[in-house]
Design a protein that fits this description.
- The chain is 0% helix and 31% strand.
- It contains no helices and ten strands.
- The chain has strands spanning 7-9, 24-25, 28-31, 36-38, 40-42, 45-46, 49-52, 60-67, 87-94, 101-104.
- It is globular and about 40 Å long.
- The two termini are 29 Å apart.
């Protein structure tokens, strides 16, 4: 998919979580307040991301997995040591200001460049710094 030819999942629709051989390579949008696992990936790698706990049925989330480093991996908040130079997800909310619980998945820690998962934390880019 692409930004101009995006797969869109409407309110109350469902999807399978995907697999290594069947996932969306590019962005996809979910509209509604249903808990949802985005079956995303990039360049043959399956990397899901999920949202849950959404209240407003007009909420839209667009998700994609990117195989490669974010454009800025240096501006780190005080509690972070580094961010991945191998992959990242982009999750954008539109229409409402509803919060959501976000879950990230990986199927193979080594393939994701993870050696010691006990020190792994999830960080977010706030526009100027990883927090």
């Amino acid at each position: 998919t692409s930004d101009i030819a995006m797969l869109e999942v409407l309110h109350n629709a469902t999807s399978t979580p995907g697999s290594a051989s069947s996932h969306v390579d590019g962005p996809m949008r979910k509209i509604g307040n249903d808990d949802f696992v985005f079956p995303t990936g990039a360049n043959g790698a399956w990397r899901r991301i999920a949202v849950s706990g959404i209240n407003d049925q007009d909420t839209e989330f667009t998700a994609r997995h990117v195989d490669g480093a974010f454009t800025n991996t240096m501006d780190l908040g005080p509690s972070l040591v580094s961010v991945s130079d191998q992959e990242h997800w982009i999750l954008e909310r539109a229409v409402t200001t509803d919060d959501a619980r976000v879950e990230l998945y990986w199927e193979d820690a080594a393939q994701s460049g993870l050696v010691d998962c006990s020190t792994l934390v999830v960080a977010a880019w706030n526009g100027s710094q990883w927090t």
